[in-house]
Amino acid sequence: MNTASLPGTADGVIDDHHAIRQVLSDYFSGLYTGDIDLLRSVFHPQAASFAEVDGQAYHQPVEAWFDKVAQRTAPAVLGEPCAMRVLSIDVLNAIAMAKVHVPARGFDYYNYLSLLHQGGRWRIVNKVFDELPPKPKPGQR
């Protein structure tokens, strides 16, 4: 058996990280520009998003989330800089976890994205997110 082609093996780790970074880059681009087709390409069709928002449980199938993204003004249109970034990636065989920072539209989101390697590609299967309160501007308390 040639293990170099298997996700998460010693020879495949660099390839996995590169492929996952491409998925995350497409995720950031889709969020930044509001490109639902690009977002759809990186998510598993049965993926879901989870959080606690204003003290209430939040759960939404990915398709419902796509609808919300499509209806809002994209950060690119607002003239915001794209400051989204990967904080960490952890790969184990055909599963991975990425922690990303998504500052956009006046919010400071952190996402934990679960990814699965299936059918020869990595896709996001679960998104859990939280928002940090905005940092005070100099001179504010």
Which bin fits the share of residues in helices? Answer: 25-40%
CA distance, first residue to last residue: 61 Å
Number of strands: 6
Structural class: alpha+beta
Order of helices and strands: HHEEHEEEE
Q: Poorly predicted ranges (pLDDT <50, ≥5 residues)?
A: 1-6
Mean pLDDT value: 88
Structural write-up:
The protein is an alpha+beta fold. It is built from three helices and six strands, in the order ααββαββββ. It has helices spanning 13-33, 36-42, 62-71; strands at residues 43-53, 56-61, 85-92, 95-104, 107-118, 121-131. A six-stranded mixed beta sheet has the order 2-1-6-5-4-3. Strand 1 (43-53) and strand 2 (56-61) form a beta hairpin. Helix 1 runs antiparallel to helix 2. The chain is globular and about 50 Å long. The model is unreliable at 1-6 (pLDDT under 50).
Secondary structure: elements and pairs:
Elements: H1 13-33, H2 36-42, E1 43-53, E2 56-61, H3 62-71, E3 85-92, E4 95-104, E5 107-118, E6 121-131
Parallel strand pairs: 1-6
Antiparallel strand pairs: 1-2, 3-4, 4-5, 5-6
List keywords for this structure.
six-stranded mixed β-sheet; 141 residues; disordered N terminus
Short précis:
With 141 residues, this protein is of the alpha+beta class. 27% of the residues lie in helices and 41% in strands. The chain has three helices and six strands, in the order ααββαββββ.
